[in-house]
Amino acid sequence: MRKITSVSGIKMPRNAASGINMASPVGESEAGSSTLHRLRSGRSQIHSFVRFVNLTLRKVDIVWLNYEGARVRYKTLHPGQFVDVNTFVGHPWIFRDADTGDRLMVQLKEVYEPIGYNIAQGWPPQRRIVNITIPVYTLQERCLQVLRDIVPANMINRLDLPSALKQEMMEYSAIKTRHYSSCT
After folding, report:
1. What is the pTM (predicted TM-score) of this model?
2. Can you give the pLDDT at residue 181?
3. Contact criterion met (CB below 8 Å) for 85 and 67
4. Contact indicator for 169, 147 with CB cutoff of 8 Å
5. Mean pLDDT across 16-37
6. Which of 31, 82, 137, 165 is most buried when burial is the number of CB atoms within 10 A of its CB?
């Protein structure tokens, strides 16, 4: 398993509360995720030891937001699996359904921001357990998820629906086709 290491060099603006760098928007568009597009990893020497646990019945992509804000798939977990990750404060992580690209949650949030290890806690460090769960989707999100699964994208324009709804269905269908960089 690849361990994420810090990078020295350029100073970047930071969110003072989390130590996570705020960048200009990158990546694909998702409803309600404008802040997510500005996130990227920042320099840090403060270690964090976590265990991501998939509590869903879905395959889950664990995704690190790198120094440019690009999404890097770190690992895919099957239901009930977990992975131990050595990361750093200031390195945000997100979680997506591996088959559909739908957003998932940890600790009632879309973005996990690692908490630093304190040497006073002793050695070896205790890993923080981070449970991955399914959020409560809005009725609209859930309807679009179901329609995406039963209506092929090339058939959406043939539906007898308002054009604004067809456009939204097309955009939601595109979430399924996202690509990540690979962690090697």
Report:
1. 0.73
2. 60
3. no
4. yes
5. 43
6. 82
